[in-house]
Amino acid sequence: MPYFPFKQFVTVMVLAASVGCGAALAQTSPYSGVGATPAPEDLGALAWTAGPSGKELPPGKGTAKQGALIYMVKCAMCHGRDAEGVRWAPGAFSVISGPRLGGGNGVPLFRRPAGRITTMAYTAPFTAAIFNTIAVEMPLFRAGTLTSDEVYNLTAYMLFKNGLVKEDEVMDRDTLPKVQMPNRNAFPATDEIYMDMQKRGCIQTFGMCRDR
Amino acid sequence: MKSEDKRTNSRQSARRRFLKRSAALAGLAAVGGIRPARGQDFLSKLPPLPDPKERTDYVPEDLVPKEHVLRDPWTGEMMRDEAGDLVVDWTGTPQWEAYRKNVRAAGGPRYGPEKDTRLYGVRSRYVTAHRLGSDGGSGLGFSGIPTAPNTTKVHFPTQGTPLHSQMGIITPSGLHFLDEHGEVPEIDPREHRLTIFGMVDRPLTLTMDELMDLPSVSRIHTVECNSNGTTTYRNRLEPWATAGHVFMELSCSEWTGVLLSTLFEMVGVKKGAKWFQASAVDEYNQSWSIPMWKAMDDAMVAYGQNGEPVRPEQGFPLRLLLPGFQGTMNIKRLRRIKITDEVTLFHRMYTEQFPDNKITWFRMEMPPKSCILRPSGGQQLTRRGFYEIRGVAWSGGGKIRRVEVSVDGGKTWKDAEIQGPVHSKAHTRFVFPWRWNGEEVIIASRCTDERGSTQPTSAEFAKHQGVDLDTLMTRGSNRINITQPWKIDREGRVTNAVFSI
Fold it and tell me: What residues make up the domain containing A73?
């Protein structure tokens, strides 16, 4: 469905909360009674964010073709008609500006080869990074106003403008995580190195983490 | 009001009589012939108070200029204090002008200020330390937010701390640095909520009042940008750079709030949860994914900064504080926390790439750094002889254990004295007595934190990055903690000598 099923979500959350409270009576916090059960608006678009597996992606779907139309209305004035980005002349400041989103041609390399264009689609190791950003943070100054379908459409459009999906390929909670991102191998296979700074070795080298 | 007048009138004649006798009395009292009046008599014989309309100290309510009365921001009503009296800012009122005229007679213009500062103080007009606007050159596509008129070519909405003017370990709230990517919103604290949900037994939404009822802590910590001191920022490399230009994205405050461990215990984190996502409520709801171990360690949500509520530019009414972590993760205007078992990314992917093309994704903890603040860039030594070299050291890894100072260009290092109490992940003051002999010299400091990490020299850092020193100097590094040397020439001028040590 196009919109997040708030009513069902609330029912499920309330039930879960009450079941949780009932089951955990023996272990209720000493501060019980403080605070209220969240309403759907309290969760906002953060309810839709997901990790590399995409298992927390919301229901909904989109294609790049649909995304192009939404993009023109909501994104183009800051990110350019062709997702090439908008920059102003030095000294001509404007809040209406944004980075290049499309036309990437390679993953970032240390030697920064000439002509290399690294957009977020070429830097992000998994699609959820793009989905999360659009869902929670965009459009600038109107963050949190998109529906889940719109976010899928725009994510598909961004991937399409970087040559990673076809124009009518349907992106939903199952297909989106499966898109092979060019920079996927730059991300560690597991998050174990982030779980223990001592093990990670940052402290040994001037406090500057450098994962190998 | 009426009782006040009665009191005045009944005193007037008594006071007039007293005045007539006062000269004679004073003369006789000096001789020792007449004893001074007792307490109660004295009160009734006080000189008469002037006509209320001519008084400039107490002003009757009907004479208060109503446009100068402070108003409740929510109801628009005129504010009254606990005694029922109006709260007024007298700047620009006729009564204030009368006060200034009178007071000039008493002690001069120093006692007749331009502005009524009784309700909230200001500093001396001879103190001019100010925040530094900065060209961030971040390349993120923020080609500019409309900026207020300025003389610097301010490109990026950074207002940096003038670290060289900081005297202790606390950065004055008005000089605390900020990086704002949009407007600073006006959030009504009564409307603000903090929602915690996700892999929890009891998802919760809390109001600000409820947060302030919970068990609280108050701790001194720095907030520092990931790129503080970066050599990709050109001003930082200029010979005229001050300590503020070098380390502007750094401030230290006392933060008061609730530990995340308290909140997470309230909601009941489920087994298997390894990360939490924190999200703001402002123009673009900046969000970060943070490991769970930090939440159970010393992370907190802060509503107080240096004794008063966190200021809007620092995240009023609530900000996340992750002591020692890069500044951008200390989400301002914190609104939501989602607890999950998977790492994720949002648009700020603060990465660094190395010659083997491997990328480091989550660096999180800030490395140990230190800086001599006196003498530092832009200052002038006016004579030979004794100076106390002093500065601050800080590390995201914990307490500062050791600070060394070199006064011979890095050839030898001696321990400086660390002034306690030493706070973890906070500014730490160090002092080093020194005599300047008038010769050209390069001085620098180097610190070690309690985990054994030491600040590297430029050469050591280049080697760590896998590049040679030349490449480091030209390519720069976003996140860098090399020593900060200052050069003092024969005339006593202090300049930036970055990369010298």
Answer: 44-87+95-185
